[in-house]
User: Fold this.
Amino acid sequence: MTIDIKKDMEALRDLQQKMNAYDHAIGVLYLDGVTAAPFGTASGRGRTMGVLSEASHRLFANDEVGELLERMSKYKEALDLQTKREVEELTRSYQRLSQIPAAEYAAYATLVSDAEAVWEKAKTEADFPAFRPYLEKIIDYQKRFAAYYDSEKAPYDALLDQYERGTTMAQLDNFFGRLKERLSPLVAEIAQQPAPEDGFLHRPCPRQDQQKLSARLMEIMGLDPRYAALSESEHPFTTNFNKHDVRITTHYYEDDVASSMFSVIHEGGHALYELHIADELDFTCLGTGVSMGVHESQSRFYENIIGRSREFTAYLLPVLKQLFPGSFADVSAEQFYRAVNKVQPSLIRTEADELTYPFHIMVRYELEKQLIEGTLTVADLPEAWNALYKELLGVDVPDDRHGVLQDSHWAGGSIGYFPSYALGNAYGAQMLHVMEQELPDMWKGVGEGDLSAVSGWLAENVHLFGCLRTPAETVEFACRGSFDPEYYLAYLDGKYRDIYGLR
Ligand code: ZN
Assistant:
């Protein structure tokens, strides 16, 4: 038996090493496609990526792997913790994949690939009817997939489980209900106050000087240039190949310096998570962030809790004054702090401020739930979208480009993904509460541009574990107790009442 276990373990590691190699190659091709590759090169790259994806799929979704995982599951209690977790995670992925009939999965993959191209054009032209038949099919597939994943669960619960394991509609109804109850009156009160002056954020800042700012921010965050690099793409994102190779991207707007500044800090937060994962998890399925929600908790911790803090903005302003002398010379630390925290209900999720952001997620959550439950049709979706934006954010949606077509998630088949963003914000605020108790001088360091204590705490309490623990266990450990949205509400209430002089 001992010999068999050893052989099985070797086969398991070998499988993961190979899967990682395919992911690495596909990831580099993707990164090249959205950063450096010339416009006309997409089709050849698409074919190569198709071949690699299929090979990677075949490597994993076959009977031999199924037998290996089944055999190892039987004696998993005899394995070391890491191997046991690898078996559990791979078994979970395997079951998900193998429950969907191969032909159905292939047809769905083609649909999604077509839908993404159609969505992009439909968005540019604000033409929802062009995208509608694709979204209808995607919703139908997702309903069927939900039944394959777990026929015992309500379909939307089964979909949520893919992104933030264990999360249910019952929990989210409660979570968003509490947010709405507490934050709506606060946003309304703020709307009665004079808006902070933020015109100076739109003064011209040359691209090459913004690039210097990015390099400086990466240095401040402790992103080691040997293992992390920045490039430019239309939409900022992070991609990780292994713990010694993480890439982030940004997008520069010469009349909006804050856009790239906070993108770099946000993506830098994602990158630090990946870079800090324990060495022994590298090249296994456990060697990455544990869930979307926990990943967002880290990126938003850096972007909002640290990056938009009074201490950090006071540290950063002289850096900006030096890099962009004409644009910030007459700006005070308080003006800068208030400007980057200006609350303004708006149309676009990715441009939303920290306080109104969760309302954008509530809109999507309500609509996804209804689409999957079958109480809303895709045909009625734009109208329902616009009505919810009016109800929750008080804004009128002028067209579907600035409304229902703004995000790529649904075109990509990601239904149940959005709530993770809101949960991530809330996890981060609860982690801050613990961090402030354990690191009483943390804000002093942040004010001096020294983020080492903050990053060290997150590395030790979150990053190191990768997927060795479940998302809920990861959050519970870092929060020293179960998740409670009250910390997030108290954080937002305290910060924004102070900024707007409300008591
Ligand atoms: Zn993010």
